[in-house]
Design a protein that fits this description.
This protein has about 210 residues and is an alpha+beta fold. The protein starts with a strand and ends with a strand. Strands 1-2-4-3-6-5 form a 6-stranded mixed β-sheet. Strand 3 and strand 4 form a beta hairpin. It contains 4 helices and 6 strands. About 40% of the residues lie in helices and about 35% in strands.
Amino acid sequence: TRLLMFALFLLSPFVNAKLEKVVDITYLNIEAESVSELTSKIKLAEDTRSKRHTWATLNWDLNVEFHYRTNESGCTLVVDKMSYLANITLPNWTNLEDKKQSLRDWWPKFSDFIKSHEDKHSENAFTHIKMLYESLLEEKPFLSCSESRSAYLAMKHRMLDEIHTFDKEIDRHAVQYFNSRNPIFEPLKEQGSKIVVESGMMRSYIGF
């Protein structure tokens, strides 16, 4: 099942550049009779990128369309369109309605936790992408187009480093929350599960 969450278009009043945000959710449908069977089936569907058993994953990409404008001031990199494209994969317990009440109460709360975690990573990425976008709207000219491109790539690399720094803080808070006494994690702790959170280049996941 795929659900398009939203597409956000921001038009600059200064140029015709456009910032696009598209976040897509993919639900992994799982039929299980217990939490133990649910985790076992998730293990069989391990994330192909991380090679981990994951409750949820986020993969995103940034597409930038631009051209160069040259005049007596030099060469300027001009952004035509910047697109943030993300996909969040989440589990969907399909036959939960006939389970005992404690499981029906627990699953929505735990699902909200893992979705909220990946949403935070996604918002972190887009916040920094928007900052990059706004910086590029300044359209600073350089002596050559190669220098203009090099400056853009340097800004992009700094942005990725900043995203990763904030991602690690999001992960740290998630681990602290799991290690707390919050009852939403008890069904997992009872079967010996531990939380694993990791963020890398344009991805993050929460697993066990």
